[in-house]
Amino acid sequence: MLSRDAGRLAAIAMTTLALAYLVVKSAFSHDDPSEFPMFWGVGRAMAEGISPYSPRTPLLIGTLLSIEDPAPWFYPPQWFVILRPIGLLPMDRAIEVWRAINALLLAIAAMALSRALPRAGIMLPEWAMALFLLFATFIQATPATLAMGQSSLLIFAGYCFYARGLILSERATLALGVFLLLLKPHFGVAAAMALVLVPGCGGALFIAVLATGAAALPQFVLHGFAPTIVDFIGNIRAYGGQAPNAPIYMNGLSQILSRFLHVGASGIVLLPLCVAASMGAALALRARVDGRGAIAFAVIALAMFFVPTHPYDIIAFAPLAILAMAFDWPVRAATWLSMAICLRPRLVWDFLSLPALRPGGDTTPQNIPLTALILTVACTLALIAAALVLLRPPVSGARAR
């Protein structure tokens, strides 16, 4: 065991290292933002009065950025309030702002969640909270997400605030978590529906839905409610037809069905399974003394398995690493093994002495199916951890707020 002073020094060192790394990977990054041009291009279309779901938007993006056959916009209407300001900036400045916001949000969300556990009666050494921030910073998906300009860190923050809001019964924090998760409905719908069955969460859920509607209102006013919904659904139907979204490139149950059973299951098909499992977990756990923390853990772990995600999305589920501290060692072991795999999937491949990945790194197109397969093992371990939380009695001394 570390002495109090040594633990404090270790916490300071890890926090400093994590924050310095985030600054380097955001403010000083020169990586090619391969995904961000779509976000910026949609913001530009919004600034020019074009609906993001219109066929004119991909044409505008292709013209502005010299991209051949850009994908349609798959995200829900509330993104208007985020991307409309982004679209007013030059793209090089916009990606700097985007990376800085995401890096800052990661740090705030990680510290907010780690500080919630001691307040809920789950004692953690100070260095453990700093270690969680360091882990969330150095997990392979974080620099990849910042480099590409993706939005996965918003979902990480959403789950952090969701868990903190549940554990501490903080209505505003829980509402913020649901709002962020609903930016990607395949995460947010299951998390929101689980709250329907948790006593005392109706107010937070109402606030989150109201805020989501308010954020989408400019899109509806400018382009009409019915046309927006119809065009959005039409774009969603085209999602699985995009090559990068094929099941073989995805983590979790979708990968298992595609690789071993040769069944292609889209997120639209698997979402009801995730919703049902999350609501079932909430129903089973809500009366337990540690019910709220257990529900947060189960909702995140079930999403990790059921929701088809890309390898860079795996950062979203990192809150499991510290939430596992509220449970006994079987749950911790399954969770931390899962998180260790997520930290560096390539090391698992090398450790097992399997054929080497092709040159170019874990996230190049030809290597993604292999990375996704490794991460699917991590997703399966998360499912096992969720099952253990459901089946095992609460840890002695654990309590809900």
TrEMBL record:
Q: Where in the cell is it found?
A: Cell membrane
Secretion signal, residue range per the UniProt entry: none
Keyword tRNA processing listed? The answer is: no
Q: Which UniProt keywords apply?
A: Cell membrane, Membrane, Transferase, Transmembrane, Transmembrane helix
Q: Which residues cross the membrane?
A: 97-117, 129-149, 161-183, 190-214, 260-285, 291-307, 368-391
Q: Answer yes or no on keyword Transmembrane.
A: yes
By its UniProt entry, which InterPro entries does this protein fall under?
GT87
Pfam families, per the entry: GT87
Which membrane topology term applies here? Answer: Multi-pass membrane protein
| Membership in a protein family | Belongs to the glycosyltransferase 87 family.
Protein name as it appears in the record:
DUF2029 domain-containing protein
Q: Which organism is it from?
A: Sphingomonas quercus
